[in-house]
Structure formats: structure tokens, C-alpha cells
Design brief:
Elements lengths: L7 E13 L4 H15 L5 E4 L2 E2 L3 E2 L4 H12 L3 E4 L12 H9 L12 H19 L5 E2 L8 H10 L4 E2 L3 E3 L6 E4 L2 E2 L6 H17 L5 E6 L7 H15 L2 E3 L7
Organism: Novosphingobium album (ex Hu et al. 2023)
InterPro entries: DUF2334, Glyco_hydro/deAcase_b/a-brl
Protein name: Polysaccharide deacetylase family protein
Length: 251
């Protein structure tokens, strides 16, 4: 059997688990186990939702707070991932297209004004940092969707890092820290699942030469064996050529 190449020191693999909260603990546990096994340890990030859809408040769940702190203590980076993760705004134009076709009512920060966005970001940051006992790594909007108000709030609050579908950047300086599409999967319909599997397969062929590769998994991914198989194959493919890293290593 031909030996796999060692990861290149200048190529980074960034992996993350989205939608982390009390309501997704079992799924997050499963995904964390998969990532740890494939990446050689807790070399990934978690994106924490303070109160997913208003039904799973982190503030009231001390047992999950303990788990979150333990994950953080192990070295897993923690990002603020919105507040509710639910989009309740009314959109028009380009934003309306994004809200309808790029997410299922979960682009919470796409239509928020700066004041509301700033308050939710500040509250989420304070809560998560109080739970884990250290600073959060940054802010990533639900569904990777930001409106003008969210962009302004990000800069005003001074988050060191943010991410969308195509890049990682510093909201304060505007510096782009990494470029390229994020590889992710979809479970909410057969068509979207098939599309995400096809994109992951294409990415395994097209992105090995990229300096930074990003992989994002969601709790819903554990509901389909085809998605879990694709996630495992994709992690293995890039862990062979890219060094599993922290987002903080980009700075």
C-alpha cells in the first residue's frame, strides 16, 4: 500500500461543529468523537448557540455548561454562533433570495439592525465566556449570513475573527485570513443531501492544493449514514495533506 503524504506545515485544515447547545448534546458528542478520531485530538472548533430557537437556553442548563467548559478546557475553540439561530426579519432584494435559498429560516443576523445585532453578539459573548472561563475565538453568524447591521456590530464589538461561506476575516482590520469555500453537508431534504455529497466529492478533488481547507458539520448530519461516510472520507482526505489546526493559528 502506498504511504499517504505527511500534512504540509503551511497547509491548514480547520474543522468545526455548528449549532452546539443543550438541545444538540447527543449529536455534538457523536460528531466530536468523529472529529477527534480523524484529526488526532480535539483540533476543531465549536459554534455555540446561547438559546437555539428560543427552546434550549444555555443559561439555564448547568449540566451542559459543565460539558461546554470541559470541551473548552480540552483545547476546543469556542465561537459565538448567534443567539437564537432563528431568522425573524422581513427581507427584500438579495437578502430575500439568501434567506429563502441559502437556509431554512436560520439566517438570524441577515436582517438585524446594528443595535439589535450588537446586543445579541455582546450578550452571547458574555454568556459563553462566563461559562468557559476564557475569551471566545470570534463570531460566526448562523448560516454564515450577515447583513449590514451585523457587519457594523462585528467591527464595533471588536471580535478578532469571523467567517462566511467564502472566507475567514478580522472584522476590526478587515484583513482576510483565509479564502475558499467551506465544505459542509445538508440533511433537511434528499435533494440538498445529494447536492452536498456531490460538492464534498468535488472538493476532495479540487481543493487539496488550497492553503486552507474548512470543514463544517452540523447536528443533523448524524441522521444520515451517507453524510457521516462522506464526512469521514473528507476529513481523512484533507488530514493527509493539511495540518489540523486552530482558527487562532490564522492570525
Amino acid at each position: 500500500m502506498r504511504a499517504m503524504p505527511l500534512p504540509h506545515a503551511d497547509k491548514r485544515l480547520l474543522a468545526s461543529i455548528h449549532d452546539v447547545g443543550p438541545g444538540s448534546e447527543r449529536q455534538v458528542d457523536q460528531l466530536a468523537g468523529i472529529l477527534e478520531a480523524r484529526l488526532g485530538g480535539p483540533r476543531f472548533a465549536m459554534l455555540v448557540v446561547p438559546d437555539h430557537w428560543g427552546q434550549h437556553p444555555l443559561r439555564e442548563n448547568t449540566a451542559f455548561q459543565t460539558r461546554l467548559r470541559a470541551w473548552s478546557d480540552s483545547g476546543i475553540e469556542m465561537f459565538v454562533h448567534g443567539w437564537f439561530h432563528k431568522d425573524t426579519a422581513t427581507h427584500s432584494g438579495t437578502a430575500q433570495f439568501k434567506a429563502k435559498h441559502m437556509t431554512a429560516g436560520e439566517g438570524e443576523f441577515l436582517g438585524l439592525d446594528e443595535t439589535t445585532a450588537l446586543q445579541r453578539m455582546r450578550d452571547g459573548k458574555a454568556l459563553i465566556e462566563d461559562v468557559i472561563g476564557r475569551e471566545t475565538a470570534g463570531f460566526i453568524a448562523p448560516a454564515w449570513l450577515y447583513g449590514d447591521g451585523a457587519h457594523a456590530a462585528l467591527k464595533a464589538l471588536g471580535f478578532p475573527m469571523a467567517e462566511d461561506h467564502w472566507k475567514v476575516w478580522n472584522p476590526v482590520t478587515g484583513a482576510v485570513l483565509a479564502k475558499g469555500p467551506v465544505i459542509t453537508w445538508a440533511s433537511r431534504s434528499g435533494a440538498r443531501t445529494a447536492s452536498s455529497l456531490a460538492f464534498a466529492a468535488l472538493a476532495r478533488q479540487a481543493l487539496p492544493f488550497s492553503r486552507t481547507v474548512r470543514i463544517a458539520v452540523h447536528p443533523g448530519d448524524v441522521t444520515k449514514s451517507s453524510l457521516l461516510a462522506s464526512i469521514g472520507t473528507t476529513l481523512d482526505r484533507f488530514a493527509a495533506t493539511h495540518q489540523p489546526s486552530k482558527y487562532a493559528d490564522l492570525q
